[in-house]
User: Which sequence fits this backbone?
C-alpha cells in the first residue's frame, strides 16, 4: 500500500539504459543520462506530453488561478489582471457569522464519517475471512459490494424514499412499535446520522475488499502456529489478523482524516433541503452557492482555498503522527 | 509447517486448506456461529433497501402511494416502466449518459496508459518527479471556481467536452496501471524486442497492451462507471437540457420532484399523476442502475483485482 504513494525525493539512479549496444560506465552525470535516455526513448517522452498537458491545464493552472482569492476578480481583466485586495476576502469570511457554523458542520460530519466508516469494513473483512466455505461468503461479498456502484444521486433518492414519512418502510417499521412517523430529512439533528449511515451502507463492502487483500497476505504459518499453541479464533484475530492489517488500516485512516475537510460535496448538497440546512450546510456546499449561484468568484475561491490548505495540513500532520506512532505513513 | 500438520489433517475436508485436526473448541464454534449471524444481518441490511426499491417499482401506483409494498410487488404492474421509457427527457438523458460513458472511457483509458506506461519504465528519466507532480494533485487543488474558470476559458462550457475532458485522468488509475505494467512486463522482454528491432511504441502496442488486457479492463470499467454516475460536472458546466446526462434528469425527477403535472387538470387526474410520479421514482432508480447491474457480476471480480493491485506494494 505504502509504496503506491511514493513521493520520495527521486533517487536519481535509473538503471543504465538497457540494450545490446555499448554500455557506458554508470558514473555519468544526470544530465548526460537524461540526454541519452531522451535520445533513445524519445517515443516514451512523446507519449507523456498530452497527459502531462492535461495535468498542467486542469490541475496546476487552477492552482495559479486560485490567486483570485486575493483579488477582486473581474471577468474582463482575468485572474492576473484583477486588482489585489490582500486578505480581505478571508477576513470577510472569518467575520461572517456563518463561518463557525460551516466549520463546525464540516468537521463534525467528517469526523463522524471517519469514525463510523473506518472500523466497520475491518469488522466485515475479518468476519468474511473467518468463513471458509465458498458460497455464503461470495454472496455476502457480492451483495455488500453492490451499493458502491450505485450513483450518489440514486443513493440519495433511495435514502429519501426509504425514510419518507408517508411511503418509506423505516417509518412503517417504527410505526409497529407505536412511534409516530418522523420526517427524518426535515429535522436538522438527523442529518448527520442519515449522511453517515447511508455512506456506511454504500461503501462498507468496497472498503472491506482492501482489508481482505491485506488479510490474504498474512502468512498462513502464523495462523497455524497460533492454533498449535492453542489460540482461539478470537485470540488469533487479535494477535495475528489485526497486527497484519495494521499498516493498511493506518494508511486508510490517514487518508480519511486528510480528507476530513473535503467531505463529499455531492451527497451533502443532494440531501440538503431548506429545513435541515442548520446542520447540512458545509464549506463545500457554501462554496458552490457563493461561487456559482451568487457569482462571487473571489470569495468562493478564498473559502475553497481555506478549506484545501486546512486539508493539506491535516493530512501532513496526521501522516507525521502515524509515522511516529506506528512507523507507517503515506511516504514510508 | 505443513509437514508437521500433515498427520493431523482430517481426511474428510480435503478441499479446505488450513483446517487442521486440532479440534474446534466449543467457544470457537460459538464464535463462528456469532460471525455467521453477523454476516446474515449485514447481508439483510444491505439487501433490504434494494429489494424494497425493486418491489415498489413493479407495483401498481395506487399500492405504492398507499405504502403497502414491502418486499414483494403488490398488484404487479409495469406501468411505471412504460411511462419512464416513453418520456423523451429520460431517454435523452440515457442516450447522453451512454455517449459520455463510452467517449469518456476511450479518452481516459488512452491517456492513462500513455502516461502510466512510460512511468513504469526504469529507463524513463524523471519518472519520480512526474509521479510526485501527479500525486500532489491528489493532495491539493485550486478548488471549484479556479477549475471552472479554466473550463470557461477553454470554451468548453455547455459542450459535451466539459463532461469528458476535465475529469479525463485519475491519478489512482495511473497508479494501478503503472503498478501492473511494472510487475508483469519483465525488462528482459523489452530487451528481446529491442534486439528484434522494435521501437518503444511498437513494443507497447504489440507486446505490452495484449499482455495487459486485465488491467485495461479494470481501469476502463472504473472510468465507465465513474462517468455513468457522475453528476456534478454536468451540474456546473452544462446549461442546455439536451446535453444533460441521466443523473441530472434523475435529480430533477427524484429529488426536486419536477415531473409532469401540467396545471390544467382536474383533481382525479392530479391524484393519478401524483401516484404515478411516486412509483416512477422507484422505476427510475432501477432503470438508471440497470446497465451497471448487468455488468456488475463481471465488474465486481475485476474491480476487486484492481483494488488489490492498487493496494499491493509495487
Assistant:
Amino acid at each position: 500500500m505504502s509504496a503506491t504513494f511514493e513521493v520520495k525525493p527521486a533517487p536519481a539512479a535509473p538503471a543504465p539504459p538497457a540494450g545490446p549496444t555499448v554500455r557506458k560506465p554508470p558514473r555519468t552525470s544526470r544530465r548526460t543520462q537524461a540526454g541519452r535516455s531522451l535520445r533513445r526513448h524519445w517515443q516514451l517522452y512523446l507519449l507523456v506530453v498530452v497527459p502531462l498537458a492535461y495535468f498542467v491545464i486542469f490541475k496546476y493552472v487552477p492552482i495559479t488561478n486560485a490567486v483570485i482569492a486575493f483579488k477582486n476578480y473581474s471577468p474582463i481583466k482575468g485572474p492576473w489582471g484583477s486588482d489585489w485586495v490582500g486578505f480581505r476576502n478571508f477576513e470577510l469570511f472569518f467575520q461572517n457569522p456563518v463561518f463557525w457554523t460551516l466549520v463546525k458542520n464540516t468537521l463534525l460530519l467528517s469526523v463522524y464519517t471517519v469514525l463510523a466508516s473506518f472500523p466497520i469494513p475491518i469488522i466485515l473483512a475479518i468476519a468474511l475471512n473467518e468463513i471458509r466455505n465458498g458460497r455464503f461468503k461470495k454472496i455476502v461479498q457480492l451483495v455488500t459490494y453492490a451499493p458502491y456502484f450505485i450513483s450518489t444521486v440514486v443513493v440519495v433518492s433511495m435514502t429519501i424514499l426509504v425514510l419518507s414519512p408517508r411511503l418509506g418502510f423505516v417509518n412503517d417499521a417504527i410505526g409497529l412499535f407505536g412511534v409516530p412517523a418522523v420526517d427524518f430529512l426535515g429535522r436538522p439533528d438527523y442529518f448527520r446520522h442519515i449522511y453517515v449511515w447511508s455512506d456506511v451502507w454504500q461503501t462498507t463492502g468496497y472498503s472491506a475488499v482492501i482489508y481482505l487483500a491485506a488479510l490474504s497476505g498474512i502468512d498462513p504459518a502464523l495462523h497455524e502456529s497460533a492454533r498449535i499453541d492453542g489460540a482461539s479464533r478470537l485470540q488469533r484475530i487479535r494477535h495475528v489478523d489485526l497486527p497484519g492489517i495494521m499498516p493498511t488500516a493506518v494508511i486508510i485512516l490517514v487518508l480519511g482524516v486528510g480528507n476530513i475537510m473535503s467531505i463529499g460535496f455531492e451527497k451533502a448538497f443532494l440531501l440538503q433541503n431548506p429545513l435541515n440546512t442548520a446542520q447540512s450546510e458545509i464549506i463545500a456546499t457554501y462554496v458552490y452557492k457563493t461561487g456559482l449561484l451568487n457569482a462571487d468568484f473571489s470569495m468562493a475561491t478564498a473559502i475553497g482555498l481555506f478549506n484545501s490548505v486546512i486539508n493539506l495540513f491535516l493530512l501532513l500532520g496526521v501522516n507525521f503522527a502515524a509515522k511516529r506512532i506506528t512507523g507507517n505513513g503515506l511516504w514510508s | 509447517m505443513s509437514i508437521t500438520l500433515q498427520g493431523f489433517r482430517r481426511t474428510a475436508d480435503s478441499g479446505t486448506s488450513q483446517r487442521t485436526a486440532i479440534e474446534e473448541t466449543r467457544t470457537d464454534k460459538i464464535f463462528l456461529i456469532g460471525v455467521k449471524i453477523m454476516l446474515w444481518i449485514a447481508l439483510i441490511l444491505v439487501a433490504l433497501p434494494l429489494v424494497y426499491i425493486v418491489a415498489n417499482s413493479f407495483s401498481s401506483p395506487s399500492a405504492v402511494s398507499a405504502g403497502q409494498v414491502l418486499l414483494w410487488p403488490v398488484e404487479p404492474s409495469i406501468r411505471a416502466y412504460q411511462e419512464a421509457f416513453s418520456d423523451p427527457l429520460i431517454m435523452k438523458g440515457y442516450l447522453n449518459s451512454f455517449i459520455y460513458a463510452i467517449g469518456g472511457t476511450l479518452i481516459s483509458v488512452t491517456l492513462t496508459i500513455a502516461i502510466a506506461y512510460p512511468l513504469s519504465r526504469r529507463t524513463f528519466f524523471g519518472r519520480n518527479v512526474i509521479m510526485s507532480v501527479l500525486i500532489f494533485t491528489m493532495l491539493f487543488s485550486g478548488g471549484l471556481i479556479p477549475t471552472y474558470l479554466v473550463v470557461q476559458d477553454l470554451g468548453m462550457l455547455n459542450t459535451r467536452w466539459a463532461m469528458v475532458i476535465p475529469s479525463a485522468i485519475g491519478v489512482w488509475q495511473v497508479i494501478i496501471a503503472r503498478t501492473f505494467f511494472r510487475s508483469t512486463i519483465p525488462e528482459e522482454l523489452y530487451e528481446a524486442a529491442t534486439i528484434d528491432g522494435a521501437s518503444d511504441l511498437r513494443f507497447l502496442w504489440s507486446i505490452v497492451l495484449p499482455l495487459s488486457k486485465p488491467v485495461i479492463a479494470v481501469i476502463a470499467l472504473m472510468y465507465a462507471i465513474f462517468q455513468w454516475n457522475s453528476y456534478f460536472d454536468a451540474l456546473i458546466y452544462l446549461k442546455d437540457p439536451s446535453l444533460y446526462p441521466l443523473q441530472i434528469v434523475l435529480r430533477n425527477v427524484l429529488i426536486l420532484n419536477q415531473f409532469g403535472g401540467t396545471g390544467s387538470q382536474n383533481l382525479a387526474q392530479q391524484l393519478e399523476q401524483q401516484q404515478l410520479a411516486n412509483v416512477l421514482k422507484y422505476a427510475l432508480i432501477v432503470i438508471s442502475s440497470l446497465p451497471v447491474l448487468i455488468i456488475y457480476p463481471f465488474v465486481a471480480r475485476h474491480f476487486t483485482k484492481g483494488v488489490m493491485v492498487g493496494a499491493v506494494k509495487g
Observations:
- The domain at 87-326 of chain A is CATH 1.10.3720.10 (MetI-like fold).
- Strands of chain A lie at 71-72, 83-84.
- Residues 1-16 of chain A have pLDDT under 50 and may be disordered.
- The radius of gyration of chain A is 26 Å.
